[in-house]
Amino acid sequence: xxxxxxxxxxxxxxxxxxxxxxxxxxxxxxxxxxxxxxxxxxxxxxxxxxxxxxxxxxxxxxxxxxxxxxxxxxxxxxxxxxxxxxxxxxxxxxxxxxxxxxxxxxxxxxxxxxxxxxxxxxxxxxxxxxxxxxxxxxxxxxxxxxxxxxxxxxxxxxxxxxxxxxxxxxxxxxxxxxxxxxxxxxxxxxxxxxxxxxxxxxxxxxxxxxxxxxxxxxxxxxxxxxxxxxx
Length: 231
Prior knowledge:
This protein is an alpha+beta fold.
């Protein structure tokens, strides 16, 4: 008589219902073993060696499932602990100035967003395109003769026609051109003061100049005005 392992990728007819065995847990495995014992040929019953092998297989399956459950529980606890630690740490950022990798700025009724970027080498010029939420370019800003390193500039929140843009989030794209005419992309950074910490779905976001930033996107932190003299 064939063993249980021979039928773990088929369908087993128990006499009353068919059971899918493509993915067996310990309960399904035990049910199959009991069913097999019930419907075995009385003239050719399972021998002791086969029965012991099936029990051993069931025991191994149960142990592996218990280990998997313990690992999943441990991972969940670790995640919750790290999440709680991040939430506690985030509260300490309020009132601090931070720098984060980001490509968006928020414009309200009267603010003037600072845009920070880092050049890996000298650039004869850097052109910035600022687009609204629909993807339309509203402003183009050009800076020239820039050394390698970190730079900042202030956008007055106006479009190319001198009109104040509507309140909302705007996306920044930057292309730099070096001395030979080759182009490359600067690293865009957001700098500003952390106004508040927002918790959503157990995750902490830092609100900086109206934009919510994940803690993992922060690259530097300092006291108020720490980055004002850069660039």
